[in-house]
Every structure is written in C-alpha cells, then in structure tokens.
Predict the 3D structure of the following.
Amino acid sequence: MFDLLKSAHTLPLKKLPRGVTALGVPTPVSVELCDSELRAKREALQASAATGRGVPPSRPPEPGDWRLEVHVIRCASLAPCDTSGTPKAYVQVHWLGQTQRTSADGPRSSEPTGDATLLYTARDVGAAELARAVLSIRVLNAHALGATLIGEFEIACAELYRWPHHELHRQWVVLVDPSSPEAGCMGYCQISATLLHEGDADAPA
C-alpha cells in the first residue's frame, strides 16, 4: 500500500474542509489511520456493514474481468501554485494502464468542485497483475506550459476491494507530493471508488 497510509501520523495536516471532522463521516483516510481509536471505529463499522446489512465477508481479489467506477467529487485546501498562488486544478485517475481526467476549464480555486464520474474496465486480469494493481488519484495544476503535480493519493486495489461493498464512499483522501514528502499534506480530494469483479452480485452483466 502507498506509504501515505503507513506513515500518515507523521504528516502535518492542513485545516480540514468545512463540515468534516475527525470523528465524522466522511473523514480523511489519513486522519482515520493515524489514530488507533478511530481505526478501531472504522473496523467496527466495516464489520457491522458486513453482517448487519447482509454483505458477505470480503474475499481476496480473483483473476478475471474487473470494473472500476471513480466519482471525483471535489478538492479542498489545495496548496498554492505558481505565481498566481491559486491552482487551476484537475484530477487525473490511473488504474491498470488506463488514465482519465476531469476538466480543467473551471476557475482557479483552492477548493474546486470536480463532480465527474470515470469508468474503467479490464478483462482477463491475472493474479500477478492484480497483486501489483494500484488506484492512483493525482491532482494537478494546469498552466500554459502543461501541468504540475499538486499531490497524489494511491491505494492498492486489494485494499480497496476489502472495504464494505468494495467501495470507498465519499471519502476524503490526503494528497502528498512523493518528490517532497517532507512538505506533508498538499490538500484533500473527496472521492467515491467502487471496484467490482465479474462474479460480484453488483457487477454489470
């Protein structure tokens, strides 16, 4: 799994977006994982969802055909960029060799709203490829010469698949710049991501 999830407790965090608290839902993933009490609470909620709502215990990912749906909702508290100070941000999502992105046509803002749904399919994915598979969420600043990275978040697909219903639902994730991890949190991105195998009950025919 991405190092952010292993060392989140070392990251200096920015002020959380309005309406988001460490005990509330949604909560930035890193905040959940940097506190043992909150981590236990999340695990208890997952167990409750798996039993009380009729969802069977999650099994390991299996080879075969897969579908990923990512809803990019919004970003918040993005770090200042270039001479303007305010980024013209868009989100790039990469999974199993496929890359899609949201539009960069919106105004400059440190809290842009993306509200875009990106769909991916992958056929005949083998066990070794699944073991390496990672979902990457990158937030970039568009400018005249191209784009520069603000921050990114990655999660192993095996980890995503273990969540209730194989879904991260409206979760805030912490963005970091892997080239400058000492800079800490570069902002937040709120996403929903659902990963389904062809054998899952909710998988499309």
User: Anything to note?
Assistant: The chain has five helices and eight strands. The two ends are 30 Å apart (CA to CA).
